[in-house]
Amino acid sequence: MMTSTKAKNLIRKNPYLPEPKKVIFYKRESHDSFTIRLKWKLDHGVGQFVFVSIPGIGEAPISICSHTKDYVELNIREVGNVTRNLSGIKKGSILYARGPYGTTYPMEDFAGDDLIIIGGGCGVAPLKGVIEYIESNRELYKDIFLFLGFRTPDDTLFDYRLSSWKKDFNLHISYDKIENKGKTCILGAEGFVTTLVDNNIHNNNQKIALLCGPPIMIDKTIGILKNKGFNDDQIFLSAERLMYCGIGKCGGCMIHGKYTCLDGAVFRYDQLRDEPNDG
Fold first, then answer.
1. Which residue of 37, 88, 154, 212 has the lowest C-beta tally within 10 Å?
2. Distances (CA, A) of 115 to 89, 94, 124, 127, 252
């Protein structure tokens, strides 16, 4: 019979085995998005992700949207069977998680620069961890620009943080569409986040851009930044890709010749630009 010590060592060596975590916070953000906080003292970097699972249902990779070692906060969008089932959990529930995985934003390398944070839709969630890191290390950076784009005001993420972000940073918010314009109290304006970037960023002088969002937003934003003189090593992006193992074994997350789970999900733009298309 296997001893308890041997069993524990085997568990530690199994990279696929998740551990039970208690949900200590739950908030519905929009009709298809919610945020949970796990009781999990995890040592992780800015931009990393974890796998969250429900036994008998499956698991999904979720970016960490907090910067603290006291808990792990995750914003989850309901796009599949696993995430739809996760939406039914409550404060006090137990789910399973493993991680962290992936690369991080090299925040220390950006010291002394202006930071331009550009997020679209659910892509704002991973960047919230970046913003919280900046809040804890504000003396390291110069001006901070936040460009956040959502489909409608009802799709806004982290609305309870916007007032403090507006006070502390250069915050710009856009909505693709606004219904009942005269009756809605909002911080942003109708339009696209790419337009806000184009109108407010004028050069690349001591600036670093951090992007996360839909591919079409990423492509257009990169084009705008390049026209402003940005070099490839001044642009960092978080690439969203379907992942299964998280340790580079299955090959399911290959993007432009690289494993998203190992080489990303945070990439410097030149790391992807010169690679062959993986189809």
1. 88
2. 36, 37, 15, 12, 32
